[in-house]
Amino acid sequence: MSRVLTIGSGPAGLEAARCVAELGYDVTLIEQLDRLGGTPEIERYAKLTHHFRDSEEAMREMITAVTSKPNVQVLPNTTVLSASGEAGKFRVAVKNGGAPQEIEAGAIIIATGFQHFDPGRETQYYNYYSLPDVITISDLEGMLKDHAVLRPSTGTPPQKVAFIQCVGSRDRQIGNEYCSKVCCGIASKQAIEIREQLPDSQVFIFYIDMRMYGYWEPQLYWPAQEQHKVTYVKGLVSEILPQGDRILIRGEDTTMGRPMEITLDMVVLSVGMEPSEGTKSMAGVFGVEQNQYGFIATGGASGIDPVATSRPGIFVVGAAAGPSDLDDSFSTAGLAAVRAASVLRNGGK
Amino acid sequence: MRAWEAGKQADCYPHVAREEKERLFREIKDDERYTDYLYGCYECGICVSACPSARFYNYSPRVIAQAMAREDTDRVYEILIEDIWNCAQCFSCTRCPRQNNPGGLVSIIREVAVRNGIQETRDVLQGYSRVIYKVMLKGNQVSPDMLQPEFFADWGTWVEGFTKNMREWRRAIPLESLRGVTDASWRTDHKTLVELYTIWFETGNVELIREVDEGLYELLKNTMEEELEDAEDED
C-alpha cells in the first residue's frame, strides 16, 4: 500500500502532503470545507507572522504546490467517519459530499489544527460580547487585510489601541496552563501594521512576558518598539469597561510600580490556541490519545518525538499537537512525511 | 490612588502646561545624541542593578529609559525636575543589552534643564555654587581632605575610621604628591588656566551658568576675563 492520508489543509497539512508526494508516494488530502488553506484562509490573515509575507499569496503558492502534483488526490467537502486497521494497512471511511467512500492508506497524518480561545466563554471580565470595540487578533487580521482598521461601534479609525496578551492562555482557572506561543509575535506584527496603516495612532501591548524566541526579536519586537513606537507595558488588564463611547481599561504598570487606567478606542484580545473541533473528533475516530488540554498527545516510544501519536502509523503535525507557529508546522510536516514514507516502505514495520 | 494614564499622569506637576512639557521633551529628543542613547527598553533592570545611585537613592535608570521610550511626557518632566540629580554620571548603566545609555540621557536632560533656566533646576544647583566656582576657576573642586564621609553612605562603614587616621595613612605612602593635597590640587599653573577659561568661553559653559546663577556668572566671568587679559598683555 503506497498511499498516505492527510487530514486538514492548513499550512501543516499542505506541507505534509507536498513532502509525501515529493518522496514519490500517493497522497489523499481531505478537507472538510469546500476550499483549501485552513485557518489562514478561513480567518483571512493579512500577513504571516513572522516574515510579513502576504498570507493569501503564500497560501496560494502552498496550495498550488500540492494540487499540481499528479500523485495527490484532493478531496474537499470531506469528513472522516471511521477508521480501522493498523500501520501499513488502514481503512478509513469518509463522506465526500453525500457519498460515503473508503480510502486505503498505509499511514495517516492528522493536521486538523487549532481554534482560537473564545474570550466570552469562561470569563466575562473583558466584555468581548458586550462591547463592540473589544475584538480579537483574528478579528483584526481581516481588518488589516482590507486596510480598514475601524472601530466597529463608529466605523472610524481608532486613535488609541491596546492589545492584551495571554487571553485564554497561561491561566489555571481557565484550564489552559500552556503558552500559545504565537500571540506575542502576532500582536507585535499587528501593532506594526496598525502603526503603518494609521500613523497617528498610539498602540499599547500589555503583557506578562514577551515570548520572542529566535529571530522574532529583531524581526518583530525591536522594530515594533524602536521604529514603530509601540508601547509595551508589563502588566495585565483586570477589567475592560465602557467609558462614554470609549473604553476604560484597568491594570497595573508593574515596572513603573503604579496602577494604570487608560481610555482607549479599541482593545484587541490576543486569544490563544485550543484544539479545533476537528482535532478533537479525529482523536476519537483514530483512537489516539489526547493530552489534558485536548490536543493530540505526542512523544511516541522515545517520549520526545514531536509527530508520533499513541498509535504507530498515525502522525500529527502543526497545531493539532499543541500551539505551533508556522516554523513548527513546517518542521513537523516534513518530519511526519518522512515517517509516513518509512511506514509505507517497510510495510508498517 | 495615583491613576496613571500612559503618556498622561494627571497629578504630576499639573501647574505646568502640557505644551511646556512637550516643548522640553522635544528639545531633549532633538539632541543629536538622543538616538544613540535610547533604543527600546526591555525593562530588565540590569541598569538598576549596576547603578550605585539606585542603591542609596530613590533613583532608577530603567525608569529614565522606559519613560522616554514610552514617550511619557509627564514622567519625563518629573525626571527633568527631580530624578536627574540623583545620577552620579558613572555610566555603569551602559551595560544595557539594547545599548541604551540612561546616564547619557541624564546628561542631555540636565543640559536642557539648565539651558532653560528652570526654577527647580536653579534651586537644586544653588547648593553647588561653590563647586561650580572651584571647577570653573581651578579645573577641579574636590580634594580628599575636604570629604566628609558621613555624606557618602555608599562608601561603606569602614571609611569613617579610615578617614580619622588619614594623615597617618598618607605618611605610609612614599609619594610627596599626597601630602597637603588641598593645597596642591588647587595649584593650577597660568597656562592651564588660560586654556581652561578659553574652553569654558568657547563651549558656551560660562553662558550656561548665567541661566542658573546670575551672581556666580558675573563673578566667574570677571575673574576669567581678567586672567585672559593678563595673558594677552604678556604675549
- Main sheet of chain A: which strands, in order across? 3-2-1-7-18
Helix content of chain A: 25-40%
CATH class of the largest domain in chain A: Alpha Beta
Structural class of chain A: alpha/beta
Task: Label the CATH architecture of the largest domain in chain A.
Answer: 3-Layer(bba) Sandwich
Oligomer: heterodimer
- Largest interface, Cβ cutoff 8 Å: A-B, 19 and 20 residues
Write the layout of secondary structure elements.
The complex is a heterodimer of chains A (349) and B (235).
Chain A: E1 3-7, H1 11-22, E2 26-30, H2 38-42, H3 55-67, E3 72-75, E4 78-86, E5 89-96, E6 99-105, E7 107-110, E8 114-116, E9 134-136, H4 137-145, E10 160-167, H5 183-197, E11 202-207, H6 216-227, E12 231-234, E13 237-243, E14 246-253, E15 258-264, E16 266-271, E17 273-275, H7 277-286, E18 314-316, H8 326-345
Chain B: H1 18-30, H2 34-37, H3 46-50, H4 52-56, H5 61-69, H6 73-81, H7 102-115, H8 119-126, H9 129-138, H10 158-164, H11 166-171, H12 181-185, H13 190-202, H14 205-212, H15 214-234
Question: What would you say this structure looks like, in words?
Answer:
The complex is a heterodimer of chains A (349) and B (235). Chain A has 349 residues and is an alpha/beta fold. Chain A has eight helices and 18 strands. In chain A, the strands form five sheets. A five-stranded parallel beta sheet of chain A has the order 3-2-1-7-18, sandwiched between helices. Chain A has a five-stranded parallel beta sheet with strand order 9-16-10-11-12. A three-stranded antiparallel beta sheet of chain A has the order 4-5-6, with helices on one face. Chain B starts with 17 loop residues before the first helix and ends with a helix. Chain B is an all-alpha fold and 235 residues long. Chain B has helices at residues 18-30, 34-37, 46-50, 52-56, 61-69, 73-81, 102-115, 119-126, 129-138, 158-164, 166-171, 181-185, 190-202, 205-212, 214-234. The radius of gyration of chain B is 21 Å and the shape is globular. Chain B folds into two domains: 18-125, Orthogonal Bundle (Fumarate Reductase Iron-sulfur Protein, Chain B, domain 2), CATH 1.10.1060.10; 127-234, no CATH class. Chains A and B meet through helix 6, strand 12 and strand 15 of A and helix 5 of B.
